[in-house]
Design a protein that fits this description.
This protein has helices at 3-6, 32-45, 50-62, 74-92, 98-118, 122-126, 132-135. By secondary structure, it is mainly alpha-helical. The chain starts with a helix and ends in a 9-residue tail after the last helix.
Length: 144
């Protein structure tokens, strides 16, 4: 039995956008997108180019193609949220002004929400307003 009988991959004749379909990888194989984010979070926790790695991770989470991909598993979601919780203070330390820290803190709440949203099924996402992903963290900010 060949691997493609269980995990069909796109042929060269099909339109291929560079992303493998969800059924193309064997189960249990690490998700490269999740692994890349975990690596970004590890670098942030180590204090390595915190601003750059935070920006990279947040941009990756906002990538529209990510939302066309299959949802991440609950375990992957939990790994990402745990790693993100550990780096949150490193990111907030970049902001010295109180009003900026308040805005950054709300923005980081939205990042955690994006991670949770990524783990939702298509049906769960469809039950939300269509602008939810774009609007995360955009509510009113009460400055001191």
């Amino acid at each position: 039995m060949q691997i493609h009988q269980h995990f069909p991959c796109p042929s060269q004749d099909e339109d291929f956008d560079g992303y493998l379909p969800p059924d193309c990888e064997p189960p249990g194989r690490p998700n490269p997108a999740v692994e890349a984010l975990l690596a970004d979070f590890e670098r942030i926790a180590s204090g390595v180019e915190v601003a750059w790695n935070a920006s990279s991770a947040i941009a990756a989470l906002q990538e529209p193609l990510r939302w066309k991909a299959v949802p991440i598993s609950a375990n992957e979601r939990d790994q990402l949220l745990a790693a993100f919780a550990l780096v949150r203070q490193h990111i907030l330390a970049l902001f010295f002004d109180t009003s900026h820290r308040i805005f950054a803190n709300r923005s980081l709440d939205a990042v955690a929400d994006l991670i949770a949203l990524w783990a939702e099924s298509d049906a769960e996402r469809a039950a939300r307003h269509r602008h939810t992903r774009d609007d995360l963290g955009s509510g009113p900010i009460n400055l001191p």
